[in-house]
Write a structure and sequence with these properties.
Layout lengths: L6 H16 L5 H4 L8 E6 H6 L4 H8 L3 E6 L1 H13 L6 E5 H9 L17 H5 L2 E2 L2 E2 L2 E7 L1 E5 H6 L9 H14 L14 H9 L5 E2 L4 E2 L4 H15 L14 H6 L5 E4 L2 H8 L9 E4 L12 E8 L6 H11 L2 H11 L2 E2 L16 H6 L12 H16 L5 H15 L1 H8 L5
Parallel strand pairs: 1-2, 1-3
Antiparallel strand pairs: 3-12, 4-5, 6-12, 6-13, 7-10, 7-11, 8-9
Helix pairs in contact: 1-4, 10-11, 17-18
Length: 425
């Protein structure tokens, strides 16, 4: 775990300047740490869950409220949260991936935010993803837009100072690199990492669902264009027909030049800095992802903070959300795990002025909008499976997209019935 030399400074800043403003609705007993009080329960996933305990001492010191953090494995978190909701065992505060907010709001598991001030200075595109029927149910917290990490030295030998900014240019650049390095690949697009394809679908303007989001809509010109371009990168030998299990150390592969372009999120920054002995910082850079006709929107994994609708301590729970989403906490998190602040005000910090972060900041202004349906995570998996069948030559693109529509229609059957019955808007 990384040592953070600013922890004492930030804890002091939190205690002196933020505690009273952050806890306007708490009584004196909470602020003085009344004996016998149960800790607040906070659940989070992935790096956020692993490193959240490091953000809690300042909150406890300022308020007297202890926090019990449980880090959930990302692969099991969705089921565990649904089981907890059904069994009346939800934590007071929980992290949700933004794609899950619609679902948990729809089933009444999370409470709407009590004040617009909580989300007053967020990146607008990030905030839109957490709105359900015009109401805010979550506070955006940790944002991870995709950009392209690239090998400066490999691109330079092929005649490029920076990656191409459109799809045609990406292909030309890819073939120029391949001519220089015929035994290696250009793009790290692993078949079970669907985010780049999801981005391509959004960039072509594909509307992936139709009929009030109750049916699949993949047999369109836009979806065919995205699938065709994605498949072409593999067919022309620019990306390997491989899963992440076959390339278990992407950082090593990038360092060794097995790939020159890696579309991925900001946590990779920490990985590369930690392994500078393998790949010095001067050998790589970051740039916004290419789009069909130039730079455009991208997908990315973003998370938000929510309060359980059943918590018996809503004032304290929302105080914890205020603390975790404060600029000071978000900046500390950026140092710890690499993910970026959702608050615009945090970006005025000198910490985020490094040129390597500029493409991320710009990209956060142009997110692709995912369908706001409960079933979206499962639909993403079906998109991934369809794309793999095309890349491996098992199906043609028309066959894969027709099958994708059929499977998505099946996933949306319950939603379709509710809409047709007038139960769901």
């Amino acid at each position: 775990m990384r040592h953070d030399p600013t922890m004492g400074e930030q804890a002091q800043d939190w205690t002196r300047r933020a505690a009273l403003g952050l806890l306007p609705t708490l009584g004196l007993a909470a602020c003085t740490g009344a004996p016998g009080r149960e800790p607040l329960k906070f659940w989070a996933m992935s790096y956020e869950g692993d490193y959240s305990p490091m953000l809690m001492p300042a909150f406890t010191a300022a308020t007297g409220i202890a926090v019990d953090v449980q880090s959930l494995p990302a692969t099991a978190a969705h089921e565990k949260l649904l089981t907890a909701e059904a069994g009346g065992a939800m934590p007071d505060v929980l992290m949700l991936y933004n794609g899950w907010v619609q679902e948990f709001a729809t089933i009444g598991a999370i409470a709407p935010i009590p004040s617009p001030a909580l989300v007053g200075d967020m990146f607008p595109g990030v905030l839109d993803a957490t709105r359900v029927q015009g109401r805010d149910f979550a506070v955006p917290w940790s944002v991870a837009p995709q950009v392209q990490f690239y090998r400066r030295d490999i691109l330079a030998k092929a005649g490029y100072a920076a990656p191409a900014e459109d799809w045609d240019g990406w292909l030309r650049m890819g073939h120029a690199i391949k001519r220089q390095r015929p035994d290696d690949f250009v793009f790290m697009l692993l078949l079970n990492w669907p985010d780049t394809l999801i981005t391509m679908l959004g960039q072509t303007g594909a509307t992936m669902l139709r009929d009030n989001d109750t049916r699949g809509n993949f047999q369109t010109t836009e979806a065919r264009a995205a699938f065709a371009y994605y498949a072409r990168l593999f067919a022309e030998g620019l990306a390997p027909k491989a899963l992440s299990t076959e390339i278990q150390d992407p950082v090593a592969a990038f360092a060794q030049g097995y790939f020159a372009i890696w579309p991925t999120g900001p946590t990779t920054l920490l990985d590369l800095h930690r392994r500078a002995a393998e790949i010095p910082a001067e050998r790589w850079g970051t740039a916004r992802l290419a789009g069909p006709h130039g730079l455009g929107a991208v997908s990315g994994l973003s998370t938000s903070l929510c309060v359980s609708a059943s918590t018996p301590r809503p004032a304290e729970a929302w105080a914890l959300v205020r603390h975790l989403s404060s600029p000071a906490s978000e900046l500390r998190y950026q140092r710890l795990i690499g993910n970026l602040p959702a608050r615009l005000s945090a970006w005025s910090s000198p910490q985020l002025r490094a040129p390597i972060l500029a493409p991320f900041k710009e990209q956060m202004r142009f997110p692709t909008a995912a369908p706001k349906v409960i079933e979206w995570e499962r639909i993403k998996l079906e998109i991934q499976f369809a794309a793999e069948r095309v890349v491996r030559g098992v199906q043609t693109i028309p066959q894969a997209l027709a099958g994708l529509d059929t499977r998505v229609d099946q996933l949306l059957a319950k939603r379709r019935a509710l809409v047709e019955a007038g139960t769901l808007a």
